[in-house]
Design a protein that fits this description.
With about 300 residues, the chain is mainly alpha-helical. It has ten helices and four strands; from the N terminus they run E-E-E-E-H-H-H-H-H-H-H-H-H-H.
Length: about 300
């Protein structure tokens, strides 16, 4: 019996070829007899090593190592490599459009329950200060309210003025510390104008501009630096659906800041949200079910 006891480099003892493992490349491809499929030359990693152990009567007499790529064991190395290689992650699947729309609208108004309860009826405009408002906050509240009305007369309309007043009332009740700690009534008014304006897509789409509001209030800093800190006072510092919806505009929706607070929305924005909601729910009904209890 003849065994390959010596390195194949020895011309006296050539290594026999086992056809079961031999790759038969044709151009850049060959056939893997272990996996039973064609393979690319790139399947073989150039760093793979084959180690030979020579035993005589059970005793180790020689050891050498060579690249496996050029040997009859290359197919085995490829099979082992594939067996230890993790399966590729499945490609992400975009959710149905109506799910993306509803998830985004949840963040606009503050959750699925608030979204389903929203109607096109005009939101009330507060006329008086919130009850039980401490005296030291009442003066600040009145000063900010007067400033918001003055800005609305020049830059916005009556529904926007009502939304600004609702935002002020919500802020003074839910986070009175932010009202008391504001640098001035003017700074607080500027921040609220930015927040309500961005929540309703007002800047750029109408006559109002952020620079115009700043100049009207006599502020030095941009109102875009005053509004974001106030957003955290309305319950949604960072929208829950960031990263789970593919964009901001469906069915003609404008670029809205998702505050999670329906009180900041004007009548026009509320009607737009209701239209988008109804169309998304209709699409969901045609394609399956929608989870109306989703948060």
């Amino acid at each position: 019996m003849t065994d390959p006891l010596w390195p194949p480099s020895d011309p006296m003892f050539p290594e026999p070829v086992d056809e079961r493992w031999a790759a038969d490349p044709v151009g850049p491809r060959g056939y893997d007899h272990v996996a039973g499929r064609a393979f690319e030359q790139s399947d073989v990693l150039p760093g793979e090593q084959l180690t030979h152990l020579v035993l005589v009567d059970g005793r180790l007499v020689d050891v050498w190592t060579e690249p496996v790529e050029s040997t009859r064991w290359a197919a085995v190395a490829r099979a082992f490599d594939r067996a230890g290689r993790p399966e590729p992650a499945p490609a992400p699947v975009d959710p149905p459009r109506h799910e993306s729309v509803l998830a985004w609208l949840d963040d606009v108004v503050g959750g699925r329950q608030a979204l389903l309860a929203l109607t096109t009826a005009s939101a009330p405009a507060p006329a008086e200060a919130p009850v039980l408002l401490p005296a030291h906050l009442r003066d600040r509240w009145q000063a900010v309210r007067d400033l918001l009305s003055a800005v609305s007369d020049e830059c916005f309309d009556a529904p926007t003025e009502a939304a600004l007043h609702r935002a002020l009332d919500r802020l003074v009740v839910d986070d009175p510390q932010s009202v008391a700690a504001a640098r001035s009534a003017v700074h607080l008014a500027g921040g609220l104008c930015w927040l309500v304006g961005k929540a309703n897509g007002l800047f750029g789409a109408h006559a109002a501009t952020q620079g115009g509001v700043r100049d009207l209030l006599g502020l030095s800093p941009s109102i875009s630096t005053l509004g974001p800190p106030l957003q955290r006072s309305f319950g949604t510092p960072w929208p829950a659906s960031v990263g789970r919806y593919g964009g901001r505009s469906w069915y003609g929706a404008p670029d809205l800041l998702t505050t999670g607070c329906v009180d900041l929305l004007t009548d026009r924005t509320r009607r737009m949200v209701v239209r988008m909601r109804d169309r998304a729910l209709e699409e969901a009904a045609r394609t399956g079910a929608v989870d109306q209890d989703a948060a």
